[in-house]
Hints:
- By secondary structure, the chain is of the alpha/beta class.
- It has two domains: 4-211, DHBP synthase; 235-315, Threonylcarbamoyl-AMP synthase, C-terminal domain (Rossmann fold, 3-Layer(aba) Sandwich), CATH 3.40.50.
- It has helices at residues 9-20, 42-52, 78-87, 123-132, 152-158, 199-206, 214-220, 271-286, 304-315; strands spanning 3-6, 25-27, 34-38, 61-63, 74-75, 92-98, 114-118, 136-137, 165-168, 179-182, 190-193, 210-211, 235-236, 246-250, 261-264, 292-295.
- Strands 1, 2, 3, 4, 5, 6, 7, 8, 9, 10, 11 and 12 form a twelve-stranded mixed beta sheet that branches.
- Helix 1 (9-20) packs across helix 4 (123-132).
- The longest helix has 16 residues, at 271-286.
- The chain is globular, with a radius of gyration of 19 Å.
- The two termini are 23 Å apart.
- The model is unreliable at 321-326 (pLDDT under 50).
- Bound molecules: adenosine monophosphate and magnesium ion (MG).
Amino acid sequence: MTRVVPAEEGAIAEAAALLRRGLLVAFPTETVYGLGADATDDRAVAALFRVKGRPAHNPLIVHVAEAAAAEPFAVFDERARALAERFWPGPLTLVLRQRPGSAITRSATAGLDTVAVRVPAHPVALALLRAVGRPVVAPSANPSGRVSPTRAEDVASELDRRVALVLDAGPCTIGVESTVVDLSRPDRAVLLRPGGLPRSELEAILGPLAGAEPGEARPRSPGRLASHYAPRLPVRLDARAVAPDEALLAFGEDAPEGALATFNLSRSGDLREAARNLYAMLRAADRSGARAIAVVPIPSEGLGEAIRDRLARAAARRPEPAVGGAGG
Ligand code: AMP
Ligand code: MG
């Protein structure tokens, strides 16, 4: 059994030591639980890709405790500085040009000349990053293509024994992955993935964001591949009625009746609460004994954009019945 321990001081110090020795440790962030590896250690990063079954062409996000710690390997222009100043620590990932001679191992960035960077807003993540003293890559702590974990027990049950230690600090407060913005070209700011920071907050500073073009999205942000975040059962979106053998993900007060099991993302219609509940409820629906999962329409404002994005990928046709091969 994987060791799951409360994220107290001694456990954080132990986790940091394990990471420095090239082992993998799962830890909480405000978005989802991450599977960490030393971003400067090629063997550790290779092990991370293996454990997740993540395709090598899907680059990882490098986590640091403060923006200054990213300066040695990433180039911040004025826009990047303004966003870092305003939103870090927080659920925003910046894709920046990478400095020549950067200490980040090539496999972590899938050989690209850009690097994705984030400062997470979770006291345990920050304490761990400070104790490690090196940049740490940390994709979601789940097998590639599957539902991301927002609780330590979900990490333990799905990555059992392939991770040295899981730091447990309870459920994540945001519940969906970070928003990813590509600033690597001076003339464009591209929203590669909607996430925990709503688009409107970014656009208030950057002006309107470009969408990723299909060709652009492919090698540069494979997290955008069609099937991802997928439960085992088929997912049906925008359901206005439900069959008796379906599980229902509802939102708001008047959910359709008659489902085998109903999970309400937010009775009060609060999209932040819905984001926080999304992955745990997808998992519960998946285990409910239903034939399929139906999801009511979700509004697209605020965190709704990220929720709809994840649900669309959860519903996308899978390349194969078992573990989907896309993303991570
Ligand atoms: P994940 O770690 O799976 O939550 O997702 C990381 C996301 O950031 C994926 O969509 C990656 O493709 C994207 N990403 C990481 N590094 C880069 C990069 N250098 N350029 C573009 N996208 C990146
Ligand atoms: Mg992931």
